[in-house]
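Hey, can you fold this one?
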Amino acid sequence: MKSTCTHLLLLFVVFISACSPKGPYALTNKFYKDKTKDFTETIKQELPATLTDSSGMAIPSEFVGTVNFGIRKPNFVIIHFTAQDSVQQTLKTFTVTTTQTSAHYVIAKNGKVFHMVNDYLRANHAGLGKWGSVTDMNSCSIGIEIDNNSQERFTDQQINSLLILLAQLKKAYNIPQANFIGHQDFAPKRKPDPGPLFPWKTLAQHGFGFWSDDLLELPPENFDYTIALKLIGYDTSDLNAAVVAFKRHFVQTDITPQLTQLDLNVLYNVYVKYSGQ
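Sure. Predicted structure:
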């Protein structure tokens, strides 16, 4: 009986929260505000370094505030698909502590944009991976999740909102054109998103990432595709995974781990573009 009453009480609390004029995310919004306050207090601390030598003797230390500093800003944008059934499911995933995952933005099928983490804060969206020399992508990137179950085409409303958002981010943080990539680009051994249905060509036409030209030249005889993939940014420790990730992004009609002559032509063309940055 006690268990039943407790269950009913929890249901009542959930119902009241959902009907609250502050909305169903009032509690998570409060948690977010409290946590950012903690970060603010941490930033305000002006503590000298606490150091000791090998004998345990304290090393003299003093805090002196400089006048030359600024807040850290993102330098990459990583695009994901949610691989879930609805934007509501994704918002729930990102508002419970058990998942330990999040993103800065979520874009619904109708184009609505949910901003979930301040751009200057670190979201848990990229995980383990490597792009060029970057291994901690969460610390230097903005993660954008697009509501998509991985088997469907992205809606026009989503792509329109995404392009507007990317333009704002690129301008605000001076993000290089080459630094708009997908989750699979960064983590080819683990992740498939945003997948071969994502319109990378459209993004490149607006200055977000690169795409191959319509007229392609044959690569030189000494062209090393492994080196080219690595110089673009791919982790080639698993070469097949790197090839698949490249083809899902830049070829899309064929996502096997084999490189055809057309694939090599595309790779060479894209490699030249990245090398020119």
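The chain has two domains: 19-29+72-208, 212-277. Let me know if you want another pass with a different chain boundary.
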